[in-house]
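Re: your question from the hallway

Yes, I did run it. Sequences:
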Amino acid sequence: MFTCKQVSHSLSKEDYAKLSLTKRLFLQLHVKLCIFCGKFNRQVMDGQDMCRHFKQYEATNCQRAAELPEEQKNELKALLAAQTAKSSES
Amino acid sequence: MDRYGNYLYAYAMSRLRNADAAADCVQDTFLAGIKALERFDGSRDIKFWLRGIMRNKIVDQIRKSIKENKVDIDNEDETLLESFWFKYSGIATTNPDPWQFNPRKAYDNTEFWDVFNVCIDKVKPPARQAFVLRMLEDMETEEVCKVMDITPNYLWVLLHRARQQLKVALEEKWTGKDVK
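Structure:
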């Protein structure tokens, strides 16, 4: 049987999939029965869930957060134009 | 550049929290993209292809910053954290605090993600770097440990710390007291 410490380590490291079937069953049983590990598991899951949703959101809205300064954008454009010209010559 | 520059810059900023490093990443990504353009098969959006290139640049930047400020493994802190949670027998002694709001209900609100992005900044390095690599870039534990030159156990401590700090920051900003 797992202790709370072993369960929370396993949940945090997300190495659940690497455990044997028996160990996974014991872990699930512990999480269901133990108030602490249930809450801890929920918190880890919430964190993962939040990050997953954030990544989906930023795939379409990321530019809301910050914009490349115009000056740097122009410098970069010039650099890329030079690089493109160089590679088409060679 | 006009179409994807801001997207890539914002993506790098949310991971690196440093304007110069983010701009360098954008530059390196476009330069690498031009060189590798022949290998782009068009099977997916070029934005995500560029983001794939940028991911490696971000990891390089984090590796560089870790080299400059080596992670100070605070064993005492690790012991403190563990003794706070568990008895010697490994049985838990403290319940994690519940959320002050239901995060799942906030997912549909675009403002929440802006706040979330701001709150990542409140997570202190090296916990933030561990969080970015493991949770946002989905890198394997072993890879993150290699980049950060830490043990899996210490990564576990850093990720726990990051989750806690992010939760505190989100609760502070999102419960209406300090939403900017």
